[in-house]
Write a structure and sequence with these properties.
The chain is an alpha+beta fold.
Length: 628
């Protein structure tokens, strides 16, 4: 593949001066074609990247030119001369210019290259296309079928094959009857893709005259690469699937940040600012306007008194201002879930199974229901549910960071007791593992459930971890894991705090574990895949594998869909690295705790942790050093 065209396409409004009479496309029809091309270039630009990068704009103004002819027929060599003159006389950059020439019905090309609603593309000093008009007084919708197919067809092929020599494939011919009735291909006529005035895809059919949709305009289809035409020697491999597809994928789906809500968690903090999102893909912001999704299902304030689901914002993948508003894109609707004390009666008692609820989303665009009905599931849990709490969303925190997960650094050459009152940190890997194990015990005995005299504060008001752990970034930015400070060795650790609310007489929460993993990208972090069944071409990695079934026993390194360790996620531990067989999660392991509520208390903390040993080149996962 050679480079695709990028730049500006100019419409040449040519007056064909013949001996007997001058002929030209009317100014009104030229403007309609330009308006059409400015719409059509949107889906064209969405289809074209299958073949390579390209950025194309349609000039809003035509260029006037007079072509002096000895008859009503011109040769392609004449046309190339006119194209070169248009470029040079208007000071256009040949590296980023293409010219298109519509011809009125009275004008022909001597080689038979143009006909009503038919034409070709080639190259002079710049790429060009030419076609014949099949009618006059044209409209944007072109229900008369006299120009839209050839305009979109030739512009598409000019972009993908600007040399006009089949060094790149012809991308519209296969779906425009060239492959019809070829064995293994399709029948029924050429394909048209239909769009509304906001450039949102409506569908594709083979109907002539055009119809079947409440459309604003239609395009010739750009074939998928598997069906493209690389020669003119009956190279037809296009199937219906290669021609009948959307330029951008349309979808509507949930992404749920929190689907489990514990009784005591809700009692502690009833508001969850970023509980879930709904993503709408392949529609333009202008078409959607201010329309929001509609909800049905059992997750509502009739079944759960006091429950509220509130839209808190909309985010656009490209943008919703100006021309960006007409580009189909990903639109994200953000939602807050909040409960009140009245909601607590709906929660199950501790020890009882969760109460499940569903939320069905629907949406209409321009008054038409879209064909997607995603469903989310939510669960209300009993009180004995250990949980994390994110910081108060009004305090300026980053929403993806938790108040209960901290990463911090100790430098023993500078301070041998990084946490005041805690254990000593010795300057070695073994010393680091010993330190984090002892620190977990210290925190539990000082600030946790092992200290019956400690009353945890409201962490929205004050939090001992804010000042206790050194060199940390917890709630307002990403943590840095650094190897040295000057010439002094650094050792990096993570501490997680688990909260529990329950009466002091309640049964202990047994075998509570926290797994610690590092992810090579944020995308892997958000893809919760713990077995190979859910893997897809878009999400090919098993990011959260664990030993044990049906309940996870210990974290394992991330793998591809075939179980090969590939580093998409890496587990870390408190008493040994992965290759040395850590015992964190054994029945008496430091990260496997039975949390017992102290006497006369109904709220307690438990602490967990790991040594983030990412700077030791002797550590390998699947035979690869941890830093790689």
């Amino acid at each position: 593949m050679s480079a695709l065209f990028s730049g500006t396409i100019y419409f040449a409004h040519v007056t064909f001066a013949t001996p007997g009479q001058n002929f030209s496309v009317s100014a009104a029809d030229m403007q309609t074609m330009i308006t059409y091309a400015q719409h059509a270039i949107v889906p064209i630009s969405e289809w074209v990247p299958q073949y390579g990068p390209s950025t194309v704009a349609i000039s809003p103004n035509s260029i006037e030119f007079t072509a002096n002819m000895s008859s009503t027929s011109f040769a392609d060599s004449d046309l190339q001369g006119w194209v070169n003159s248009i470029v040079s006389s208007n000071g256009l950059d040949p590296a980023s210019t293409a010219i298109v020439v519509p011809c009125p019905a009275q004008i022909s090309e001597s080689g038979g290259g143009i006909e009503p609603n038919g034409g070709y593309h080639s190259i002079a000093n710049v790429p060009y296309a030419v076609w014949g008009m099949g009618g006059t007084n044209i409209t944007l919708a072109d229900e008369a079928d006299v120009y839209a197919m050839v305009v979109s067809h030739e512009i598409s092929e000019l972009i993908v094959d600007p040399q006009g020599n089949l060094s790149n494939p012809e991308v519209c011919d296969p779906c425009c009857e060239n492959c019809e009735n070829v064995p293994g291909s399709y029948s029924g006529g050429f394909f048209r893709a239909y769009f509304d005035i906001f450039n949102d895809y409506l569908g594709t059919n083979q109907q002539t005259p055009p119809g079947g949709y409440n459309f604003a305009y239609y395009n010739a289809v750009i074939v998928k690469p598997a069906g493209a035409e690389y020669s003119q020697a009956s190279d037809c491999e296009a199937t219906v699937a290669d021609c009948n597809y959307a330029p951008v994928t349309q979808n509507f789906y949930f992404v749920i940040e929190q689907d489990d809500y514990g009784r005591d968690e809700v009692n502690d903090n009833p508001t969850f600012p970023l509980a879930f999102y709904l993503f709408l893909e392949g529609f333009s912001p202008t078409a959607v306007g201010g329309t929001l999704p509609n909800f049905a299902g059992s997750f509502n304030n009739t079944n759960i008194p006091g429950l509220s689901i509130t839209h808190t914002g909309t985010t656009y993948g490209v943008g919703n201002a100006g021309a960006n508003g007409d580009i189909p894109q990903r639109i994200r609707f953000e939602y807050q879930v909040a409960f009140t004390t009245a909601s607590l009666a709906t929660f199950p008692l501790p020890g009882n199974p969760p109460n499940p609820f569903s939320l069905l989303a629907t949406m209409s665009v321009q008054g038409q229901n879209i064909p997607f009905n995603p469903q989310g599931e939510f669960f209300l849990l009993g009180g004995a549910d250990p949980y994390f709490t994110n910081v108060n969303n009004t305090s300026g925190n980053q929403p993806y960071l938790s108040q209960d997960l901290r990463v911090f650094t100790g430098t023993p050459a500078v301070n041998g007791t990084p946490v005041a009152g805690g254990p000593a940190l010795h300057d070695s890997v073994a010393g680091a593992y010993s330190y984090i194990t002892n620190l977990i015990t210290h925190l539990n005995e000082t600030y946790g459930y092992l200290n019956p005299n400690y009353v945890p504060p409201d962490t929205n008001m004050s939090d001992p971890l804010d000042s206790l752990l050194p060199s940390q970034t917890a709630t307002d930015g990403d943590s840095l894991v650094t190897q040295v400070s000057g010439s002094d060795n650094n050792y990096n650790f993570a501490i997680a705090r688990v909260r529990l609310r329950a009466p002091s007489t309640a049964a202990p929460a047994s075998n509570v574990k926290v797994f610690f993993r590092l992810f090579t990208t944020q995308t892997f972090d958000t893809d919760f895949i713990d077995q190979n069944t859910p893997t897809t071409s878009a999400d090919p990695n098993i990011t959260y594998p664990s030993s044990g079934s049906p309940h996870p026993e210990s974290p394992l390194p991330g793998t591809d869909g075939h179980g090969n360790i590939n580093g998409c996620s890496l587990p870390f531990f408190a008493n040994a690295n992965f290759a040395d067989g850590p015992t964190d999660y054994s029945p008496t392991g430091i990260n496997n705790q039975t949390i017992t509520m102290p006497p006369m208390h109904d709220y307690a903390w438990a602490f967990y942790g790991c040594f983030l040993d990412v700077c030791d080149n002797s550590i390998t996962y699947g035979g690869v050093q941890v830093q790689h």
